[in-house]
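Hi R.,

Here's the chain you asked about this morning:
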Amino acid sequence: MRVDSSPMKKFWALGAATTLVVTSFSMFGPVLAVLLQQRGFGTAAVGAFAMIPFACVALLIPIMPRIFARYGIGRVYLLGMALESVCTLGYIGLMNSPNAFVWWCASAVAGGIGAAAVWNATEALLAEHAPPDQRGQVMGLYQTALGAALAIGPFIPALLGWSPKTTLAAAAWCSLQRWRLRCALSSRKAKKQTAQHLMSNKSAAHGKPYALCPRWC
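And the predicted structure, written out as tokens:
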């Protein structure tokens, strides 16, 4: 039974963009930990740094529904993408800074907030727009892709013999690709039926933030 119907294509692309976020996230984490150890930071400092993004995600999960309801899920998704890009560029641009650890921690906070926004927004979009009888299949495939990206990412630099700079450059490439996916989505016109549905629900946009998704996603 096919899942990838025409209305779902844009959300499969969103899933692919989020998978790229996770891939870059899992690639540069171990590399940055090794760099910090090489610069003389202790185990506690390295562990605290590695924990920052996950702590941000855990702290934000309970309040994400209220954030979606207030600002719209599409806007939050875009903000999350922007923060993820800021995080990646911060790691690369500040690698040789004398205060690299402090700046990297700030970048990790941005990355954690962005991850919470992107991951939760993507899941909400897929759950909202997947056909009811195929929702389990859609979410299962998406979660499998995320799990695979999270598991494989740390092995990529070692298997390919990448240096830290090459790994971070690859993470930046992933960031570029997910923005290209985003731009490709924005260039597609919504179907007439969907547009009419959105107009009829425009007044309820704050009550149902998903109504803003095709406009912003």
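The longest helix spans residues 9-38.

Let me know if you need anything else.
M.
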